[in-house]
């Protein structure tokens, strides 16, 4: 007898074995036989193919070569004969992380190039390392709002070139700064287009004010702080009409026009200063501008954005995509009244920060210094572009003390110090076979380096054993590829052992196949008079169904369109079998939408058990488990009254006994004639006669009224024609003409 300890150990062992067997069955069940090697490895990641020539037994299909590797090995396939590609990876370039005091050949990100071959459905992973080098070069472009409300800020910025350069040189010895300015589009309603106001838009006549412009690039990136102060000192304030500014136009041109700005492949910062809101895509329609922003550089020889009147403002998404692609990190320095707005904007633009700008920009240097430290301490690795179709990617971040798993947008580490190495595990999976190799670029936002990933998929079997006119194929009647004979024209069979013309039936059907023509190809089940229901092929006495059919005769469709109504299969009250709903108990109809009342549920059993009639009379004892008793009792509202199959009225009561079983009590009294369905024909005839007579009376009365009206109208017309109205003159009327007649004689 086993002790308690041994009993517990044995129980745990049996549980583990059951779990293992369950997993193996689940895995085996997910891989289905396929007719060829490439279809096999594409069907499921657990599928493998045995190319061993004699692996398949007589009577079996070559599709049996497709199964999980453990099953193939168990059935006797040699490990060397199993095609089960797992994908490969090869690192083409992996320079070690290093820094250089001269800022040349600095490597902060590795590896640099990697090639991945993916098995569809299986994940491949590799590690990316990053270490921020000390003193990495910085480019800073200062983009300023020159609308009239920024007058005090401009005067302060004119003196900050040296201070700004000194602050940046605390973190790097290689720094360049540049300058650009913006107001708004030079069309109504953004800018006053009256000629005098166009030339001098400020309200104060004697104000030193310049004409409004959309965006002007003033100074390319330079190491000369004095030149920065000199060029900024030449700038004058301007003005526009509305509160919102055209800053998005300026950011787009500053990011796109790399050559004019002078951006290097280093840490790139764009400082955006403003005290107003911003126009975005769609606002240009107010000025009659309908063309969307094209994301191209349109700076003329004077550095002015020349197409602002033709293209709309960019959208936030478009701006975020261009900044990320250009590897530019924006710093929004705005006044306190606009702080909340730009914080919301910053959430939509990767690797951007927002700082509060004092009323006269006196804190701008400290703001930029703090923002740079915040950006530099955050490392975000991502792809920052659309993934190729059928490719998914996730990131696991290993940040020293903290780890984050399964990030799909990118891996991120915060509070990373200089010379601290962080690692990211990049996991890539293909869900489809790629028609050609694809390229994917991974970058740390704000760093000019990148990881180039070349992707391809392993969807074809590289068996390497193709034998033309192989002896295995019945002495040379076909080519042997991946263990399968590809027969020459005129031969069929698994080993090409049968001549095609000898096996054709009257309708051109191949009657037999197999290594010895022993497989009968016309002995399969028929449905509706067709072999395999016309939905498959007969192979060796068994139907091989098409993809969307199943059953021994391929008579059952796997389509569910016939079961679907309003997006639900069988309305949730049944299950779909062969594209028809099989309803749960209590539900009826083609889509199980009609609720069956309890009386209807038990009617057939009550009828067959009480009277031996009805649809269940031939199999009553097996179909009905209820207990039925016959008695004569008074009928009340609890009793069911249903018409039986022979037309008689069936009265029964549904009850449950103490054990919970259904008890049917059938009333065995004769039903009086009053309970029978009355003859409705007399009532219907009476109603029809009432309608006919009523319609006749209405038409008759309408005719009488019409005749009377016509007579009265004719009498009125006759009187009007015969009327003689006397002519009446006004006695007080005096004509304007007076005639005098002289009756005397002429002298």
Automatic annotation (TrEMBL):
SUPFAM superfamilies: EGF/Laminin, Integrin beta tail domain, Integrin domains, Plexin repeat, vWA-like. Residues 30-78 form the PSI domain. Residues 599-673 form the Integrin beta subunit tail domain. Keywords: Calcium, Cell adhesion, Cell membrane, Disulfide bond, EGF-like domain, Glycoprotein, Integrin, Magnesium, Membrane, Metal-binding, Repeat, Signal, Transmembrane, Transmembrane helix. It comes from the Eukaryota. It is a single-pass type I membrane protein. Residues 36-461 form the Integrin beta subunit VWA domain. One of its GO terms (molecular function) is integrin binding. The chain crosses the membrane at residues 680-705. Residues 702-745 form the Integrin beta subunit cytoplasmic domain. One of its GO terms (cellular component) is integrin complex. Residues 1-22 form the signal peptide. It holds the Pfam family Integrin_b_cyt. Disulfide bonds join 37-47, 40-77, 50-66, 202-209, 257-297, 399-413, 433-640, 459-463, 473-485, 487-496, 519-524, 538-543, 540-570, 545-554, 576-581, 578-620, 583-592, 599-608. It is found in: Cell membrane. GO terms for biological process: cell adhesion mediated by integrin; cell-cell adhesion; cell-matrix adhesion; integrin-mediated signaling pathway; leukocyte migration. Its main location: membrane. The keyword Hydrolase does not apply. Belongs to the integrin beta chain family. This is Integrin beta. It comes from Pantherophis guttatus.
């Amino acid at each position: 007898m086993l002790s308690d300890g041994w009993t517990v150990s044995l129980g745990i062992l049996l549980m583990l074995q059951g779990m293992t067997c369950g997993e193996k069955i689940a895995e085996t069940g997910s891989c289905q036989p396929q007719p060829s090697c490439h279809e096999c490895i594409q069907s499921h990641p657990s599928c493998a193919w045995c190319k061993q020539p004699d692996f398949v037994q007589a009577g079996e299909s070559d599709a049996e070569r497709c199964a999980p590797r453990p099953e193939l090995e168990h059935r006797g396939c040699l490990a060397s004969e199993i095609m089960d590609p797992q994908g490969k990876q090869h690192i083409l370039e992996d320079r070690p992380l290093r820094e250089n005091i001269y800022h040349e050949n600095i490597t902060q990100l590795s590896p640099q190039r990697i090639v991945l071959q993916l098995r569809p459905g299986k994940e491949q992973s590799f590690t990316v390392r990053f270490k921020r080098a000390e003193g990495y070069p910085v480019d800073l472009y200062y983009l300023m709002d020159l609308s009239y409300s920024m007058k005090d800020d401009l005067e302060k910025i004119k003196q900050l070139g040296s201070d700004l350069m000194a602050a940046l040189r605390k973190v790097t010895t290689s720094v360049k700064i540049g300058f650009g300015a913006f107001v708004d589009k030079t069309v109504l309603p953004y800018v006053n287009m009256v000629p005098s106001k166009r030339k001098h838009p400020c309200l104060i006549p004697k104000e030193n004010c310049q004409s409004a412009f959309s965006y002007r690039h003033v100074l390319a990136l330079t190491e000369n702080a004095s030149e920065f102060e000199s060029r900024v000192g030449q700038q004058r304030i301007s003005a526009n009409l509305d509160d919102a500014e055209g800053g998005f136009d300026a950011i787009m041109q500053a990011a796109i026009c790399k050559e004019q700005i002078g951006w290097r492949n280093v840490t790139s910062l764009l400082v955006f200063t403003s005290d107003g809101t911003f126009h975005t895509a769609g606002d240009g329609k107010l000025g009659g501008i309908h063309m969307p922003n094209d994301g191209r550089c349109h700076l003329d020889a004077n550095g002015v954005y020349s197409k602002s009147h033709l293209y709309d403002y960019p959208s936030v998404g478009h701006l975020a995509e261009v900044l990320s692609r250009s590897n530019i990190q924006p710093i929004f320095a705005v006044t306190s009244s606009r702080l909340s707005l730009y914080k919301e904007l910053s959430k939509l633009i990767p690797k951007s920060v927002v700082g509060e700008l004092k009323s006269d920009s006196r804190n701008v240097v400290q703001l930029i210094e703090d923002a740079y430290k915040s950006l530099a301490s955050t490392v975000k690795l991502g792809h920052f572009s659309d993934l190729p179709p059928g490719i998914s990617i996730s990131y696991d971040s290993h940040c020293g003390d903290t780890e984050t798993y399964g990030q799909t947008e990118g891996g991120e580490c915060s509070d990373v110090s200089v010379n601290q190495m962080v690692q990211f595990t990049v996991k890539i999976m293909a869900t489809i076979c790629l028609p050609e190799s694809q390229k994917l670029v991974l970058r740390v936002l704000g760093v000019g380096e990148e990881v180039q990933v070349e992707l391809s998929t392993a969807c074809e079997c590289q068996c390497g054993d193709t034998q033309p006119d192989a002896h295995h194929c019945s002495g040379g009647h076909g080519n042997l590829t991946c263990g399968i004979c590809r027969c020459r024209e005129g031969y069929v069979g698994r080993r090409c052992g049968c001549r095609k013309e000898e096996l054709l039936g009257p309708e051109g059907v191949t009657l037999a196949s197999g290594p010895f023509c022993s497989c009968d190809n016309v002995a399969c089940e028929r449905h509706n008079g067709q072999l395999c229901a016309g939905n498959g092929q007969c192979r060796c006495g068994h139907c091989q169904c098409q993809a969307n059919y199943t059953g021994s005769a391929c008579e059952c469709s796997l389509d569910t369109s016939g079961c679907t109504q309003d997006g639900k299969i069988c309305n949730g009250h049944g299950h779909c079998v062969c594209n028809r709903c099989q309803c749960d108990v209590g539900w009826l109809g083609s889509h199980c939408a009609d609720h069956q009342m309890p009386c209807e549920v038990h009617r057939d059993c009550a009828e067959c058990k009480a009277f031996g009639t009805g649809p269940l009379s031939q199999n009553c004892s097996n179909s009905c488990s209820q207990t039925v008793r016959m008695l004569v009792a008074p009928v009340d509202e609890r009793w069911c009254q249903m018409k039986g199959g022979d037309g008689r009225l069936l009265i029964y009561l549904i009850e449950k006994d103490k054990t919970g079983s259904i008890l049917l009590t059938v009333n065995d009294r004769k039903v009086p004639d009053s309970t029978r369905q009355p003859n409705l024909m007399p009532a219907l005839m009476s109603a029809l006669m009432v309608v006919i007579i009523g319609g006749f009376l209405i038409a008759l009365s309408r005719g009488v009224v019409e005749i009377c009206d016509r007579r009265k109208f004719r009498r009125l017309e006759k009187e009007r024609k015969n009327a003689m109205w006397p002519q009446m003159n006004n006695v007080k009327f005096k004509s304007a003409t007076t005639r005098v007649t002289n009756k005397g004689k002429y002298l």
